[in-house]
Each structure stands twice: as structure tokens, then as C-alpha cells.
Amino acid sequence: MFEAIDFKAKDAAQAFVSSLKETGFAVLKNHPLNKTLVDNLYQAWLDFYRSAEKYQFAYTQDKQDGYFAKNKAEKAKNATQQDIKEYFHYYPWGQCPDVLKVQTQAYFEQASQLAQTLLNWVENQSPPEVAQAYSQKLSDMIKNSDMTMLRILHYPPMTGDEAPGSIRAAAHEDINLLTILPAASEGGLQVKTLNGEWLDVPAEFGYLIVNTGDMLQEASAHYFPSTTHRVINPSDRIQNTSRISMPLFLHARPDVVLSEQYTAHKYLIERLKELGVY
Ligand SMILES: O=C(O)CCC(=O)C(=O)O
Ligand SMILES: [Fe+2]
Q1: Residue 40 in contact with residue 103, Cβ under 8 Å?
Q2: Which residues are close to ligand 2, an ion, with C-beta < 5 A?
Q3: Would you give per-residue pLDDT tens digits along the chain (278 residues)?
Q4: pTM across the whole model
Q5: How many CB atoms lie within 10 A of CB 64?
Q6: Is the beta carbon of 83 within 6 A of some atom in ligand 1?
Q7: Which of 149, 168, 176, 231 to mutate to test the pocket of ligand 1 (most atoms within 8 A of CB)?
Q8: Which catalytic reaction applies to this protein (predicted)?
Q9: Distances (CA, A) of 196 to 27, 38, 99, 176
Q10: Ligand 1 centre from 147 Cα, in Å?
Q11: Which ligand sits closest to the CA of 182?
Q12: What residues contact 252, with CB distance under 8 A and at least 6 apart?
């Protein structure tokens, strides 16, 4: 089970960073995200996904903003089937339906600010030998970055016609530095522990999931492990239900050196190619 960390506790930063180190993720309670705003966004984006308007926002390969239809959805590295999902990549500079813009931008700012705070915690709590190996301070890696992105996902109700073996989101690791993931509208998210067990993550707004992405793993020479996670298909009881979720992916500027081998840009492009979206 999870031990939730109280975001407002005195030792929160230390507890948070040691959880990332031990498991690649952390569960935060007493977090500052706004439930009403998130609920409203889930409903408003669900309406968008139910309309044909979505097709006017198709993503472009070079910028990666906009709508990814189900048949364009990424295929997790090493997975044999595409995920059963459609999604939208929101960047402040990118495409967004007018009716969703104000609230989506408000949430983007709220979640980005929290992500920055948490990255500062990681920076301050990194052991000296790890911190010395960062090419620049973690907080500088995201300065003026326009790569941080909000992904709004819609997992449609299951129809029974899904390709055998396909799953809402196959096991994967996130590409970015840190991911901020409020409870989805339904359960299904599981994270893999370091001893290989799948653990159900609570889908209650009070618990916020934060996980390490591959770029932080790379920048820390694997001191911080990047968590493997997935979204399993619903049981019979909720077959007819859509699922909406909204991870924020905190990204470094493209020029940032992560390791001897990679800049953030090189790393991202390599990963997008593996996912079949670039
Ligand atoms: O839908 C979720 O709960 C998780 C989504 C996810 O892991 C992702 O899009 O990277
Ligand atoms: Fe993910």
C-alpha cells in the first residue's frame, strides 16, 4: 500500500524525494490542486471528445500539439498493440478549442507551478554527488521551457471489438522530468514496484500521484528510477464508462544536456520515434 505524504508537512520535501528514490513515484495528500477546476475540465473535455469537432485539431508531427485520434495513438515501447485511447496535447502556445482554453490554461499554470516546486524539492534533496553531475541546476533546466505539456486523455468505453491483448495504456515510463497526475475519473492506473508487483493507485482526488520520468532518471545517472505504470481495462461493471485523465509532463528546454549521450531534444525525438508518433 501507499503511504501518502502530506504536502504541507515540515518534512514533506525530504519524504517526497526519498519516495521518488525508493519507488520512482510518490503520493501526495493535502496538495494545492483545485478539485472543482479538475472536475469541470474532465466534463468539458469529455464533451469535446464526444463531438466531431476534435478532428479539426489533428496534431502535426513537428509540433506535437493537438488531437491524437485512436488510430494515431502511441504504441508503448515494446508493446504489440496500440493503446485504446485518444488524447490531446495542450501547450500554451498550441492548438486548443476556444471553449476550453481559459480553464485549461488555468489548470496548466496551477499544475506547472506545483511541478516546479516539486522539482526544487528534488534539487535541494539530491545528494551532493548526484547534484554535482547535473549539467545545470534542475530548476534552470526548465527555465523558459516551452516543452511542458498537459495531456488530456480519453479512454472510450470498451466495445468488445478491441484488438485481442490491447489495453488502455500498456506498461511504459514517461519521457519527461516529473509527471503530476491527479486522480482520473475512474480507476485503472497501476504502478510497478521495484520487485515487479503491480499496485493499484487510488483514484481519489485527495491523492495526487507524482512520478519520475526518464529524463530525470537520465540526468541523475539513474539515481532516480523512472516508474513503469499502465492503465488496465475496466472490469465488467464499468464497461460502458469513459475514463478521463490529465497528466502534466514537466519538460526541460530542448538544449539542456541530460547526460553525455543526450540533450533533452535528442532524447525526446528518439522516444517519439519509438512510440510511432514522429
Ligand atoms: O491515464 C492515466 O491514469 C495515466 C496516463 C499515462 O500514464 C500517460 O499518459 O503517460
Ligand atoms: Fe504515463
Answers
A1: yes
A2: 174
A3: 678 999 999 999 999 999 999 999 999 999 999 999 999 999 999 999 999 999 999 999 999 999 999 887 778 888 888 899 999 999 999 999 999 999 999 999 999 999 999 999 999 999 999 999 999 999 999 999 999 999 999 999 988 888 888 999 999 999 999 999 999 999 999 999 888 999 999 899 999 999 999 999 999 999 999 999 999 998 766 667 899 999 999 999 999 999 999 999 999 999 999 988 89
A4: 0.97
A5: 17
A6: no
A7: 231
A8: 2-oxoglutarate + O2 + 2 H(+) = ethene + 3 CO2 + H2O; L-arginine + 2-oxoglutarate + O2 = guanidine + L-glutamate 5-semialdehyde + succinate + CO2
A9: 19, 32, 43, 22
A10: 18
A11: 1
A12: 141, 142, 145, 147, 176, 177, 215, 219, 258, 264
Which of the listed CATH numbers 2.60.120.330, 3.90.1580.10, 3.30.300.20, 2.60.120.830 matches domain 17-275? Answer: 2.60.120.330
- The rounded Å distance from CA 128 to ligand 1 centre is 32
- Closest protein CA for atom 1 of ligand 1: 245
How many Å lie between the centroid of ligand 2 and the Cα of residue 229?
Answer: 6
Cα–Cα distance for residue pair 188/114, rounded to 1 Å: 24
Residue 269 and residue 138 in contact, taking contact as beta carbons nearer than 8 Å:
no
| Encoded amino acid at 267, one letter | Y
Q: Measuring from atom 3 of ligand 1, which residue has the nearest CA?
A: 189
